[in-house]
Write the structure tokens for this entry.
Amino acid sequence: MARGITESDVHTAADELVAIGERPTVERIRAHLGTGSPNTVTRWLETWWKALGTRLQPECTDLKDAPAALAKLAGQWWQLALEHARELVLQEFADTRQALSAEYDELLALRQTFANEAAELRSKTEAALQAERLASTQVVELRRLVSQMQAQIDELSQQRADANHLLDQAATSRHELDARLQQLQELARSERESLAEHARSVENRALAEVDRARQEIKDLRAQLLAMTNESASKQAHSSVQMEVLRASAAAAERERAVQRARADALEQELERLRGLSAALETAIKSTKTVKRPQKTVRTKRRES
């Protein structure tokens, strides 16, 4: 009941429908009242039909002055009318029951449909919850991967900074070594020139000493030949002088050899410094070669 109709409301509506020449039915009473459930209207309409005979019976039986045959016929007619009305009511009840049964079946079908939809919704909800849990797990995993990638990026950035620092240090060391190498080359060149000049000077002096010694030897030999008959003391003195000259020549020769050995050592040191410069250049190129792939990797990761 939408508005709480009573038995009196249904009976009054049925009487009003009869007064306008219409047969009271459940649908007509509901339309006349504008409210009421079919079950309630059916129940109160049934009591209306049951009370209808009692309500009409005094009017039909008030035939005291009528002939007995007419009263009998009137009673039979009224009984037929009541039976016909009862059949109509029973038919109405049957139609109403059939309509209610159809509505009940439809409600059962709707209930089953709703149950199926609810089960499907529960399944979809469970699937959505499962998908949400999976998505949450994937989000956590993606965040962990992002953190790892960020750590790798930071580490590569630090490595790049360290490589740049090492490269700067290598460049600074290279400049210092180039300057030092240039200084050493200049020093070696100056030292070589000095040594060469000194060697030439020593060689010239040695050659001069040798020439002088040879000349003196020649002179001494000439004097020795000329003074063959001189005394033993002069001969011994000449021998001592000869030994001194020979010792001087040998010392000059040894000095020359020492100077040449020093010049050779300086040449070897210069070659070693040149090799060190070439090795440093190769190391710097290797550092640049190592650095470039890191930049490429970093660039590819940024593009991705």
Remarks:
- The chain has five helices and no strands.
- Residues 68-226 form the longest helix (159 residues).
